[in-house]
Amino acid sequence: MGQTIAQKIIAKHLVSGEMKAGKEIALKIDQTLTQDATGTMAYLEFESMGVERVRTERSVAYVDHNTLQTGFENPDDHRFIRTIAKKHGIYFSRPGNGICHQVHLERFGIPGKTLIGSDSHTPTGGGLGMLAFGAGGMDVAVAMGGGAYYITMPKMLKVNLRGRLRPFVTAKDVSLEILRLLSVKGGVGYIIEWGGEGIKTLSVPERATITNMGTELGATTSIFPSDEVTRAFLKAQGREGDFVALESDPDAVYDKVIEIDLDTLEPMIAMPHSPDNVVKVSEVEGMKVDQVCIGSCTNSSLYDMLKAAAIFRGRTVADSVDVSVSPGSRQVLAELMRSGAAEDFISAGARLLECACGPCIGMGFSPSSGGVSLRTFNRNFEGRSGTKDAKVCLCSPETAAASALAGYIFDPRKLDVSLAVKMPETFHTDDSGILPPASAEESKDVEILRGPNIKPFPVNTPVPDKMTVKVSLKTGDNITTDHIMPAGAKILPFRSNIPYMSQFCFSAVDKEFPERAKAYKASVIIGGVNYGQGSSREHAALVPMYLGIKAVAAKSFARIHAANLINAGILPLEFEDASDYDEISLSDELEMDDLYAGLKAGRVKVLNKTTGKTFCLKCSLTERTYGILRAGGLLNYTKEGNA
């Protein structure tokens, strides 16, 4: 039986385990990346392991999230990351050099290699034929130290693309269509491989948009073949030597196959407040728009920017609309300036922001009260933009630009504009914004500089055999990591200060939660379906751990967050019978006895001492994850000498 692309890469990197869906496997990791919102904590974790130099082929630290320097906190974190990177063998991408996923695609991604990053959209690298995973910072720290990355062997989902995209229909529309078909839970447990004759018509930036958005499906990762399109991209970046051809075997077997006809696809848009609330643009055309944002790691490539600029050329945005443009990298910005496209944006009335995540994570350019904001981003969770009552919609750069001109949602197919943009055959590469590390000998003299906002990494205690805990919070379905630990300009600067951040935990759900959790000292959270979807931020596990959360009992979990909970020493437990969720109330007292035996057996019996009722929670632990929980988290487990 033949293999899929992902199975081939997994087989070459398999350290232990069986390549059978549902079984735990350990993978050798070739490359890692971090960004500054998660990186400070990841490097504190790496430092605590006592490893002098990273043991990967390439590790890169990016600064692209917390770039607003309104106080000492962000610049102190940047300085800390720069100096610890220099000392320990990590490349450092300076503030303003670009968004991690765009820069990594341009300068470091290699087909057939494995990559994990402390950002959930790391699967962007799959557009280049990498097996790239989003992970928690602790998993990245372990990989930098030479340890394996553990996941459950996924099933394989194939999406075959037929035909060719029509004018003004884009890769973003492909992503939104698959979200419409599958929902934000539809990719859970799968690696998505994109194939069919239609992929030959998609450039690497277009493919990267699709693999980036695969994260919103809950997929483990997404991947495209590495073909002549890939070779052309790498050649244009001066990296043709990194090219490796990759394709699935003709007799590869997939667990599920979906067909999408590109010829019939229309411009799509995700309405508030979920990436899968997708409709055709034509169905909501005419809705007034207050703001348009073009950029983010999803749609900030030169290809995207040039098409948006062509729509703006010689025109002016509507009086009632504010527009921002965030190029994905310094390379993209430089090419926009050389081609004159940057002037097209500015002359049209758009505000050109720096090469960073910016508005996507609520770092500036928030919408007005109740405002409708069209964004080319990947998430539109409620409040993520920085304005709680904003109505954020997700769409392509073409739809965004056309709507900015009209002042309302506008189908770009009605425009009388040519989008035959010309991409450079060779990019002007300038890596001066990427600082190489010191040599092993020079690193001995490098001082790691820490600011007063950088607090020690919080350490959990081992899971006891018996727990009696109160319910400190009960949530509904699809709780995101933004709900658990909000982003934004007011909170992100304190990413390295868990005690300070704790006061904002679940602030969008229940403002009383932090004080209640502190008062209970040890407590449990009750959650619904798909608990912890969204960002890979491990702060959504570390902060609850700091507040005394010992377990989360939910109907189901998002993959990365469940792993982060285990790494923090918090039990991720699922209801055996979903109806038991309804029988639990805030402040109920739950007793879990014989936990060690229950965790090993995969079934924990719980007594609700408040109601007198009993119910069962299930868990799927391996010997390794059981050991991590017994130790009180991955850091303790690693310090005990476990690989």
Provide a compact summary of the structure.
This protein is of the alpha/beta class and 643 residues long. Helix content is 29%, strand content 19%.
Describe this structure in words.
With 643 residues, the protein is an alpha/beta fold. The mean pLDDT is 95. α10 links the parallel β15 and β16. α2 packs across α3 and α17 runs parallel beside α18. The strands form six sheets. The chain has a seven-stranded mixed barrel with strand order 21-22-23-24-27-26-25, surrounded by four helices.
Instruction: Please tally the helical runs, counting DSSP H or I stretches of 4 or more residues.
Output: 21
The description of the largest β-sheet is: 7 strands, mixed, barrel
Strand tally, please? 27
Described by the principal axes of the CA atoms, the overall outline is globular
pLDDT averaged over residues? 95
Low-pLDDT segments, ≥5 res: none
The whole-angstrom Rg is: 24 Å
> Going across the major beta sheet, what is the strand order?
21-22-23-24-27-26-25
Percent in helix: 25-40%
Oligomer: single chain
| Helix/strand class | alpha/beta
Strand content: 15-25%
